[in-house]
Amino acid sequence: MAEAAAKSATNGEPAKPIMRVDDLAVSFDNGRGPRIQAVDGVRMSVYPRQTLAVVGESGCGKSVTAMSSMQLVPMPPGHFDRGRILWRGSGTEIDLLSLNDRQMRDIRGNDIAMIFQEPMTSLNPVYTIGDQILEAILLHQNVTASEATEIAVESMNDVGIPDPKARLRAYPHQFSGGMRQRVMIAMALACQPKLLLADEPTTALDVTIQAQILELLRELQQTRSMAVMLITHNLGVVAENADVVCVMYAGRVVEYANVFELFSNPMHPYTRGLFASIPKMLTRRDRLVTITEVTDDPKQFEKLPGASEGVRPWWPWHTPPKDMAAADGPAGDYYLQEVSPGHWVGVWRTAAVHDHESRAPDLTYRIADDPAKVSLRPKAQHVETTVTGA
Amino acid sequence: MTKSQGGEAITGIQALQGEGVHVSQGFWADAWERVVKRPGAIMGMAWIGIVSFFAVFAPVLASGHPLVMWELNAAGERGAMTSPLLQHLSTTDWLILIWSVVCTIGLVLPLGIKRSRKLAWIIFLSLQTVATVIVAAGIKGFFGKRDAADWARELEQSDFFIMGAAALSALVCALFFLLAPTSRTIWKRAIFVTIVGAVSGITMFQTWETPPPTFQYMQRERERKIEAIYTLVPWSPSQRLSDRSTLRLEPGNSAGSALAETLTIDLPLMGPIGDDGVADVLSGIDRLPLQAAEKATAKEEFRAWVEGARTIQTEITSENAGDALRDIMRPFGRSFRVGTDTLGQDVASQMMHASRLSVSIGLVSTGIAVVIGVTLGALMGYFGGKVDLILYRVVEIFMAIPVLFMLIVVAGVLPRNTYVMMAIIGCFTWHFSARYTRAEFLKLRNQDFVQSARAAGLPLRSILFKHMLPNGVTPVLVDSSFRIALAIQFEAILSFLGLGPVDQPSWGRLLSDAAGDAGAFAPWLAIFPGLAIFLTVLAYNLLGESLRDAIDPKLRKARV
Amino acid sequence: MAAYLIRRLLLMIPTLIGITFLVFMLIALSPGGIGAAQRFAGGSGQSGVDARAQQAYLEDRYGLDDPAVVQYVRWLGRISPLKFGTRDQRDPAGTIIRSPKPLKPIAMLGELWGTEDDLTAPGEVEPETLSDDSAVNNATYRKASGAYLLARLDYIAAQTNLRLALSTWGTAQGIRGVLNNKSKLNESKLRGLHIVEDGPVPQAVQDKGLDAASTYRDAQEAVIQAYERAITSYNTAQVQRDHLANVYAAKPYPQVGWSIIPGVLSLGPPDFGTSSSRSQPVLALIKTALPVTVLLNLIAIPIIYLIAIPSGILAATRAGTWFDVASGAMYVALWSIPVVWAGTLMIGFVANERSGLGWFYVAGLNSPEADGFAYLPSWPNGDFHRGFMLDTLLHLCLPVSCLVYAGFAVLSKQTRAAMLDNFSADYVRTAKAKGVADRVVVMRHVFRNSLLPVITIFAAVFPAMLAGSVVVEKIFTIPGMGKLVLDAINLRDRELLLANTLMIAGVNLLALLLADILYALADPRVTYD
Fold it and tell me: A203 CB near a chain C CB, below 8 Å?
């Protein structure tokens, strides 16, 4: 059933990304120190019904990327240096960064919704749950208050909150953390957004609740056919949920591939380091491998396809190679190169790279469309896969 | 934010590699650096510096005693030279002068000691001076009381009394410096104990009996018996107009009649009244803050008085009468630059001397409040439970009634002197710092470093004051600047209400003279003392604001 | 909520007891003390024996010769609505009448002269039967109480006389300090001495010469006479007292309050006593003064909130702009202006007709002729007539502006800081992510949450305002609590001062309670159950 739905979707229209991030650079004022470049030349794209996982350590710029697409980066101290975030809400592409406040507000919560890491503080403590969900609905949909309440109840029902009618009158502090995150999701989904930005939605929750929330997200993604940008630093979450993975480091994309490609064939030493540091079952170890053990090893940098021609993985701790052919523009020392089909790696812009400029990262891959892999997903059988829209 | 928009930006990696990272010099040094960047803080500190300067040097800047005086013999030749001003300085004046000189030398001279160490020295020396001053005042006050006990009276008569009192004050010095961790070796400490003890002991001994102030210099000058050079403001705060008379501008007493009344008392002592002198006075009346009709009456009354006086005094020339009259008449005359109060005392001189009261009340009362508050707050926060329950009830009792109201009541029933005032302001505002400290200590006591200090078996004193206090005292310190400002305001208000110290001039009391009951209003008494209070309070508030912004990281973030 | 309120109200009682105890002890232990207070109020012009007798009478009347704690407990008993023992009675004039105080016997100083047997013991008088007619009883009571008052006065005077005689006698034989500096007898100085009528003069006195010996003899004679007089007057007073107590026990007047356990516990109106400086019941004085002070604050507080909160919000939304910096600087400056200076300047330059503009009134709450005004403004015959209300408001302009300006700083800074705190809160980000407009975010989300600290700061603003109004009332001569307090202090009026302290503390505590209730209403997370 999933396959059929996926096919109809792919056949019905040419695949076009719903959102494309193009050469985004954001910097922050740092008091008396120099400005901090949080994001520098990030490129990525996300397709309808696709889950793009953005992975990286704290401060690598993944949240800033997501927040930028909602223009939620506090300005000042933040500042968009360059780049575009192209949104294809209804046919034509518009640059989200160029929208004024009014236009942006129409998109926020309506087309793009976001859920945050801290469910404990993300809800306003002095208003009832109902007030807060209704606020979003009444803003974006032309409905009466009672209709809005119905939508809210339905939405709360969808995210699995028991007795939603009574719960509408409850205050956030009367909910547990997991329930609050469900409320956040209900609030985000109440207006049927096309893209959901989930900024570490499960980090603050305990493990069992994490699984429930992620399952819920997956299920809702299927039923509502929305795209999800899942920001996380948990590789387990990535493996279970992502279609495409984007690994970020120090404000730049270091690797970009579909989830199976990335897990089976990580090309950037940093990605390899990440995987090496995961504890494995059935392997007895005194201590785990650290990421730096991998990235400090020069041999790891030789393994990239094309390494012999001078394609070197970009790594900020290294001095740039001698044969640099850096472009004059900002972030000219770096390039996101498609080193093998459907697999992008951030590399130094050496002479070898300079000659072979590749296309921007762009993968339509969806596990739901991949008959070979769909069964690999745990609990996929529970997912109700009726596609309503598209 | 516009400063480096297009300029070079660094990545987090570069920051990690140390690029563009400001190396911290420690919490307080950093905070201080941020504080001194603010214009408000600079202005505040500048004003506090000016007031402190007057607080220290007022006795030698504004005094009715000549700085230098020569006796003149019959032929008008200069004889022996004396300095009545120095002779009339009190123990307190001397100690504070010595303290300020030593501290200035210590700060300016490159002694090869670290700044923090110098600061510690100065703090200890200041505490020492304060303690000695209080002991000296206490001893003098106790024995000088009219209804002192018999034994005190007898003791005061004994030959060794002054020596004993001086020795006692020296002992207080010894105590402080022996306890203070100023230097490691006991020998060094002993040397300092001896020096400081000897200085304060000798000062007390020398100045135990200052001659009672009589200000007959001007009259003797007129009689050509002496020649004198005065200081900046040639009036002592308690010195009344021309030593003899007062000009009372009271309700129902018109300026002219007040003047005539005053002059009549002075008539036998005054030189002859010349036409120039009369003209001087008449023009002086024009400058008085009166309405035209009143001026006219005043002139009328004065002319009538002159007629009367001239029948008494047959010999009439001009010179001296002009001086005497001018002194009395002019709020902005030559001698009284800021005018006089209703008792005919010089306002400028009083304001200078009052700065000592304001500075010391602010610092000492806040010091008392912080010490009591931090100690009790630390105990409450650390122990919790029953200690907290009981002590917090006490705090609640203090919180239940407005501080200023309580101060009015207490100052009303207790004796009116400076030290009592300091003590009550301190003792009725301690609960603020107690609450801050309690809250901090409640947070701190469960933190790991406190737990580990406890696990290491450190004594309670060490845990509380060495490990927890430096971490929990920041809010109290920031708050204390505002508390100083508040204490100065309280003192001004109490003095205004007539509940202030009677033994010292005060800005608040001067201000209270400005508006009389029946519509009389002396602008110079309203503006200058009020401005002094306002600027001092503002200075401490600005400093406090800057400190808080520099220290409180939350606010700093919010200010971006 | 009700349980919480009751608990809070009950908790106020120990706090109020604590405050009044503190003040009471300070008054009692201060040099001069309460004794001096009443002396100041009562004694004028007399000297020597008369003055001392007067003082002794006052001390006796106000019970000042007891230890301070006993005096405090007695005061507490009077103001407490819960009364122990038999209920008090109230005469038609409204004065509370208590059972007559017991007499304190003369110090017989052991064997110095006479013995305790010479004194009449209390209760020796036979109780007499009284009629059932209350009018007759009233008359009997009035007569008895008048007689007792005279007898007691006589006894106190005799006692004072005796003390002075003893002092003179002590001095005559070289013993100093028989009386301490509060005119109390220092018994230890006379211990072991005896007076024998016409007895020999001690050797030490004889050695000093004939004059000394005759002085001694005179002094001894005076002591004996004083003793005789004291004993007689004591006995008379004692008889009168017993008689009065008997009449009182027959309840000549209606009793006050309601009995809970008859004869043991009753509920009665608190009795704040009579002001010694104004000879009026304290309660009546407070009843006229408290509304004035409350009115001042009720006008001032809304003004502060209405100006400070919007400007705090503006400053926060425009953090870092000139408005923020300028309003911040202005408020710090305003905050630093001492209220006494502001008041003086306003009187001198704005209100005063001779030296200033003469726009407002210098003093008082109403113009002298205001009593004849209509309440509201009116236009009889086309002329504007301002009326009582407008007259009061015009008088209040300057005092209120003195009271409000300092509050702006605290409140607006608090609002600004709270707003800035909440700007970076996560739920604001959530609201923005929902597409809520910035202005709505500020008012609906940020400000609503910033209300909580603004309510909390009320607990700091209100006490300051209350105390500030004391000063303002003094400056502008407004007949409120502040003037009452300062008069009480200057005239050393203990009852008035204590009652004032209690009232101010009570009003303050109620305001703080109100703030807590408001907080609970504003924040759903706080419940007082």
Answer: no
